[in-house]
Amino acid sequence: MREGWRNSTLDQLGRIVTGKTPPTAEQENYGGIIPFVTPSDMDGQRMVESVGRYLSDTGASTVRNSLVPARTVVVSCIGSDMGKAAMIAKLSVTNQQINGIVTNSENDPAFVYYNLSARKAEIRASASGSAQPILNKTAFGRLKIYLPPLPEQRAIAATLGALDDKIELNRRMNETLEAMARAWFRDWFVDFGPTRAKMAGTTPYLSPDLWALFPGSLDDEGKPEGWEMRPVGDFAELKGGKQLEKKHISDTGPVPVFGGAGVMGFTTNHNADGFVISVGRVGAYCGQFFSHRGRSWINNNASLIRPNLKVSGEWLLISLRHIDMDVIKKGAAQPFVSNGDIAKVGIIWPSHAIVSAFSETLVSLMKKAEANEQESRTLAQTRDLLLPRLMSGELRVSEATFEREVEA
Asked: Which of 358, 337, 339, 362 is nearest to 349 (CA)?
């Protein structure tokens, strides 16, 4: 045992609280400002900052013993998705699928979070029941934890937190970049802002060379004069993916594997290259579009959309993401979309000059977002490599070391 470290159990770290759901039939219990945290709100981020539902003061009062403060460590302990860990950002109520740890002053909640975030398999293995696995409050409290002194807990959590802070910053930056691209696309190709501004005689808000590219009036269909609605099939070939055996898919690797819900793993093989667009064909995520620059594998629940050489793949991607895919989805229990139906959907085509001008800036935005994503993957791999070594005491972190890292 490392000097100063000690073995403990979760129930010795503070107060364990099992959540509870206020009566859902009583509408006055919901719609307030108190977050109601469920496992679906634990999306892999360190901190739960937004949730699907909120409670009123009335609703929170019916489960007042389940109110937990900010920085409570929460762990999903029932069902197939048990073992997820997070911290909550502010005073909240959790549902009965979650056990929360309100740490005492002798323990750092961020350290406890990081410790438990790496123990999903162990938590699942500790559960009882087969049809509906569950880790009750008592059994959860008996889980062991190896603890350094409080200053070292804080230093370890801060070291790992510095990596997560950068990952979170990259995520927020990419949200901003995506919002910029969507707003820009909507103005040009959905709301026809430049054309409407010309018709209204307002001051140009684009450079003179760009402003000159836009028509000065709308046609009888309400789109800019000379613009066309053309089928997706005019701009790309759609081809179903091919199943890759599970033994060839891993958690890391050089080539992403795209399934119906996006990246499902990594491999060393590829069946697509260049600017790759994929679309989920079957299931809850069917009709969602994803992209990657470089080699990819498109699996059997997805399709490859290969842009032809006459158009920008980036422009095509954002055009596809503005399609109302619900119109062409089929099936109720298991929704799906066909390649043929996607190929027939109409998208607006202005001119090569306008698409080229749009794509020139769009590509720079997308490449910046892609660089952020790659950096975040590298940071996450570094964090996951450090985490078990820090938690076991194999790797020590001093306050001075952490200060230098933060400065760097």
From this structure: 358
Burial class of 247 by CB neighbour count within 10 A (0 to 12, 13 to 18, 19+): exposed
Long-range contacts of 249-256 (CB under 8 A, 24+ apart): 252/381, 254/295, 255/294, 255/295, 255/296, 255/297, 256/292, 256/296, 256/297
Asked if residue 48 has pLDDT above 60, the reply is yes
Q: Could you please report the per-residue DSSP string of 32-50? A: EEEEEE-GGG--S-SEE--
Q: List, in order of start, the domains of the chain with CATH numbers.
A: 8-146 (3.90.220.20), 170-354 (3.90.220.20)
Could you list the beta-strand ranges (E) of 204-315: 228-231, 236-240, 255-259, 262-267, 275-280, 289-293, 297-298, 302-307
Bridge partners, 258 (sequence order): 263, 298
For residues 187 and 173, give the distance between their C-alpha atoms in angstroms, rounded to a whole number: 21
Q: Which letter does DSSP use for residue 215 in this model?
A: -
Which residue is it, tokens 């609703």?
59
235 φ/ψ angles, rounded to the nearest 5 degrees: -115, -10
pLDDT in tens, 73-87: 999 999 888 999 999
As a residue count, the chain comes to 408
Tell me how far apart the alpha carbons of residues 197 and 351 are, in angstroms, rounded to a whole number: 19
- For the entire predicted model, the pTM comes to 0.84
